[in-house]
Amino acid sequence: MTETACKIMTAREAIRRYVNDDDHLIIGNYTVATCAELVFEVARQKKKSLTLYSQSGIFDVEVLVGAGCVDRLISTYVYRAGGKEGSSAVERALKDGSLVMEDYSNFQYNARLVAGMHGFSFMQVLEGAMLSDLYNKRSFMGDDKYKVITCPYTGKDILTVPAANPDVCIVHVQRADRYGNAQYWGAMGSVAAAALASKRIIVSCEEIVEHDVVRSSPHLTIIPGFRVDAVVEVPWGAHPCEVVGYYNLDKLAYASFLLADLSAEGLADWIDQWVYQCPDRAAYLNKYAGIHGNKTLNAIRARAFYSAPANYGSAFTSCWDENGKERTMGVTLDELTAIIEHGGKNHG
User: Fold this and answer.
1) Which residue range is the domain that position 339 belongs to?
2) What is the pLDDT of residue 146?
């Protein structure tokens, strides 16, 4: 965890500064706690020609594809109601040719991100995929979707996937400090790897807390502040999706979206009402309250259920005591330097 410059800004400013047309954009969240407000802002600013990565593209991917922001999609699962005979934004876009998609398994998708996170150029995956359509059917990645190489140890053919290093990751977490140290708990999926594999990171959070709060629970920090470009405080920033410790899935709002998504016209109207006509999350929540009432929203607030505290205490936090002496040898820094310079021999 690091203390650097304050990185707090609005969603509008963060997306304007760090998401460009033609970028490779990854949605960091997996299934839950999706970064809805950041997704909405990408749509509001009408970013174009994005290559979108998403491990579980349902609500978020549907919005971006429906808004015309995405040309290429890399995913493991997307919402395609009724299969090829049904209807969804992704299915419609695939049919009319405005979208092309590469499909990976969950393991392969994560392998790409883990490789990118660690600076590798590729990662080995299970060769059984070579018998499936995941391997045989390819789109815009062509020969680069997979490579078969010879193992230098066994001589066997092994299957590999290329590292993924998206231009920017958008991700929602429970809390962060002003420096961008982001804390997240619950279903992890590819959240940390998606962020750390990316060149730029925009974090939205339910609340910004003091740095001391972050320091008191370091095990929850999945993205260190020095890697984060912007942090945006957005209460209810994942709605209608759920956030552990804050609120549940809003089944009413989610169902309304899915019904609208059954047709291009319905989705366009939904996006117009809930994205374009709401300049920010506050306006979105005001609109929701006007239609459904605050009682409906409050009903899904999470009840408190705390984990047991972890003791991070120690006898002292520095090897130097209050008199400036090293605790083991009882010498000052100047005295220790002299010992080192003399090779540790015959020092007074």
Assistant:
1) 314-348
2) 98
Could you tell me if 57 and 145 lie in one domain? Answer: no
Condensed to tens digits (0 to 9), the pLDDT of residues 183-220 reads: 999 988 899 999 999 999 999 999 999 999 999 999 99
Tell whether the model's pLDDT for residue 178 goes beyond 80: yes
Q: What is the CATH number of the domain that holds 90?
A: 3.40.1080.10
Q: What SS3 string covers the chain?
A: CCCCCCCECCHHHHHHHHCCCCCEEEECCCCCCCCHHHHHHHHHCCCCCEEEEECCECHHHHHHHHCCCEEEEEECCECCCCHHHCCCHHHHHHHHCCCEEEECCHHHHHHHHHHHHHCCCEEEECHHHHHCHHHHCCCCCHHHCCEEEECCCCCCEEEEEECCCCCEEEEEEEEECCCCCEECCCCCCCHHHHHHCCCEEEEEEEEECCHHHHHCCHHHEEECHHHCCEEEECCCCCCCCCECCCECCCHHHHHHHHHHCCCHHHHHHHHHHHHHCCCCHHHHHHHHHHHHCHHHHHCCECCCCCCCCCCCCCCCCCCECCCCEECCCCCEHHHHHHHHHCCCCCCC
- pLDDT 10s digits, 60-81: 999 999 999 999 999 999 887 7
Query: What was the pLDDT predicted at 344?
Result: 60
For residues 222 and 152, membership in a common domain is answered with no
